[in-house]
Amino acid sequence: MNIQWYPGHMTKALRMMEENIKIIDLVIEILDARIPLSSKNPDIDTLAKNKMRLIILNKADLADETANKAWVSYYEKKGVPVLLYNSKSNEKKTVLVNTIMDACREKIERDRKRGIINRSIKAMIVGIPNVGKSTFINNLAKRNAATVGNKPGVTKGKQWIKIGKNLDLLDTPGILWPKFEDQETGLNIGFIGSINDNILPSEELAMKLIERLCIMDESLISNRYGIIAGEGSSGEEEVRANNGHETEEQKGKESRPEEILLRIAEARKCYKKGEEPDLKKAAELFLDDFRNGKLGRITLELPPEDE
User: Fold this and answer.
1) Contact present, 2 and 183 (Cβ < 8 Å)
2) Which helix (H) or strand (E) holds 168?
3) DSSP class per residue in 226-270
4) Highest-scoring range by mean pLDDT, 48-57, 266-275, 295-304
């Protein structure tokens, strides 16, 4: 599956960001904590060169806790301020504002020496589509200041939002980059819903994710859907007949993502007319379950070992 999505509005959005970067003090990059590498747009590093940075690992509540700690350590070693965050929670709002101000401490001190007191910090919020930028802003602003939607492409243009007396946030559209270095990145971005689902084959994407999760831990799927991966109703009867043990043939089926997707369709009663399993509906349901954390706290990427 060759994944690529770079609609024209993203080129326009990048130009807008380049025009505004001159007046920005701090670039706040929102990453998805489940895929911190794949959700990091390399174009942002070029855009934000010589600017103060803050990394927000958003949706940390959906990611593995041990992996979260590893990613925080990774960025701290690089000297980049980082904060785990769940935009739907209010618990870290004060911590976040303090972190932003701390990241701008040097600039605030320079302004103070020049006699400039309490000048607002201008921060640009950047990230790929659907990582929660607008929810992050609304949570911080304590109001619906930015348009929110659980799909890519909701934010179309720039928008300034004032937070208190000393912080102005510039909300920007989610942008990808013209070409992914490898398809693993494209898959990860597709898994979390950062690419328009209408242009991706949902069944193929779901099977790729099933394959990945089976390598990580098959119970992530079986616990959610109450199935033994790779079995149908006849397979369940064979297990009972074999004193609760799977046959070698059944074990072999567990590595077949399409077979598992079929079991999910049967378990969730996803049928077309005539009782034919609806794999497209099952795939969409499975992807939604992953994206909403219903399969458990899952991280698909760990920090590079050589850095």
Assistant:
1) yes
2) strand 167-171
3) T--TT--HHHHHHHHHTTT---HHHHHHTT-HHHHHHHHHHHTT-
4) 295-304
Amino acid at position 79, single letter: G
Amino acid in the structure at residue 97: V
Q: DSSP string of 198-222?
A: GGS-HHHHHHHHHHHHHHH-THHHH
**For the segment 176-230, what is each residue's pLDDT rounded down to a tens digit?**
998 888 889 999 999 999 998 888 899 999 999 999 999 999 899 999 999 875 4
Q: How far apart are the first and last CA of the chain?
A: 30
The residue written with tokens 């103070």 in the block is 112
pLDDT at 109 over 90: no
pTM of the shown model:
0.85
Positive or negative, the CA dihedral 173, 179, 184, 186 is positive
